[in-house]
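Worked problem 6 (solution included).
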Amino acid sequence: MKASLHKAHRLFKDNLPSYSASVEEVREHIEAMFALLPVASDLITEEVDIHGMKGEWQIVPESREERVLLYLHGGGFMYGSIATHRGESSELGRAAKARTLSINYRLAPEHPFPAPIEDAMKAYDWLLDQGYSPKNIIIAGDSAGGNLTAALLMSIRDTKTPLPAGGVMISPWIDLAQSGETYITKEAVDPVNTKEAIKQLADNYLKGVSPTVPYASPMYGDLRGLPPIYVMVGEAEIMLSESLTFVTQAALAGVDIRFSSWPAMIHNWLCCHSFLEEAKAGILSAGVFMNELYEKRQPENQ
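Solution. The predicted structure is:
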């Protein structure tokens, strides 16, 4: 294993908390772990209030005023925040030449399903109310945020709200039933997740709701009518198989679906972009997709 990938493995193996710890301890530990990752010096942040929910604009020199990337952070629906994912979300915005809006959606177990989806929808509606064209909005997220990306797209479609330009799902956790074969075949090589820990996170979020409810596990949802989606996953992830299933189902549903699997990469490897070349390449890959969507819907000379 090359040194940079080993460093990514160690980041998680050395810093992930025990899931026997309290919710507060887990959240503090995760915040401290992600604080080890740098944020670009040219990033400007502006806090915003979204009807009582904290949001943050992340603006870099490349950001265009009319383009928005709505970013939904990962963390098993139980932890994570604007701060933990600021480096990743802002660099994805840079790659998209967009302003990033990141939000602190409510977390389980205090606020279980469907509270995070409601908060994501509130943020999208707020953007529309601010005058942003849906054709200039892209939704992205990693892990649980990848789940929320798909669930939000489904919710937007189902409420007949104008659809955004598309979505980016990074290492998405979209099968809370953990039915995929890679929960077994990849557990020995995944340094981030275990089936036992994922089961605990799912129970915290679902609170008795079936894990096959489509908004809870978009892999089981009706994907017809969704905008273009790019799914990215590492080949060392226990969540690999659910991405493969989702992509197949999306293609059969007529969605413009793009997919890439990254050899040897771990869960949400993009967070390691400051030292891992494959993470930098992953962000640029997402940027190519997002720029294609923005430019298709908003010609450069307008």
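Discussion: The longest helix spans residues 277-297.
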